[in-house]
Design a protein that fits this description.
About 0% of the residues lie in helices and about 40% in strands. By secondary structure, the protein is mainly beta. It has 3 domains: about 1-80, no CATH class; about 95-240, Methylamine Dehydrogenase, Chain H (7 Propeller); about 240-305, no CATH class. Strand 12 and strand 13 form a beta hairpin.
Length: about 350
Amino acid sequence: MLSGGSDGVIVLYDLENSSRQPYYTCKAVCSVGRSHPDVHKYSVETVQWYPHDTGMFTSSSFDKTLKVWDTNTLQIADVFNFEETVYSHHMSPVATKHCLVAVGTRGPKVQLCDLKSGSCSHILQGHRQEILAVSWSPRYEYILATASADSRAKLWDVRRASGCLITLDQHNGKKSQAAESANTAHNGKVNGLCFTSDGLHLLTVGTDNRMRLWNSSNGENTLVNYGKVYNDSRKGLKFTVSSGCSSEFVFVPYGSTIAVYTIYSGEQITMLKGHYKSVDCCVFQSNFQELYSGSRDCNILAWVPSLCESVPDDDDETSTRSQLNPAFEDAWSSSDEEG
């Protein structure tokens, strides 16, 4: 696993639990530390493996750079410099015909950097304020979603000269001022977005303390009600969705906890409590069915689903209930405080 810190340091962790103990600490394999000549000068905001090969990874920072790294040597393969602070970047998980990195900065233009040519090949114009989050569709390699402080979220086809396909409208065009200029996704900054694992829907979060689920093909607000989703982040909020679960979940940083909702019903399942300062990001690992969360308390926590062990059948009423495997007591479906 890759992680980036507010001190500019990047650390790689081995996620395997070689101890076989229910509670364990992952070992750091290597790091780009403060003494490294190419270490980021300021906070690392985003890290991502090259989707097709872990021999390369990318990082972006408040130091106005996007860096491409060789994993084996921990040396820089390429650097992209920007005029503004970088909030977010993303490489398509499914692209076979392009190597574009989408980059969101403090400026209103979305930058597309081509890893093959080493230059910023394209700019998407349409937002009016800083770009707080970017995400490629996991279904269509040319479709990109962007979120901005201008209260708007947009879907783009990067092959088109005009670019913007849809500006998401929370009112679905029903308000009198629903001209393109008035389309807003949130009544505040849109500072996070995440496609569902099948790419058919898009989730957005905003500083209006709301989360919305959109149909990504036509931009329709599905009107799923998640209630208040507390969000006071002044930069991008990195949240995530499950993949491969019978009912799909969304995991959203919520103060020092992580709120877990079912995506399509909006029901809050539980709150994951373990951090003691604000959670900034979380990511789901579908192979292990594990969730990882990073917090300002300087910890990264791994969360696993609670697995129930059936008790041998007995006439005794109490023993017919499933008992929780003690290795998973801190997991997301084990809350006695649901409500």
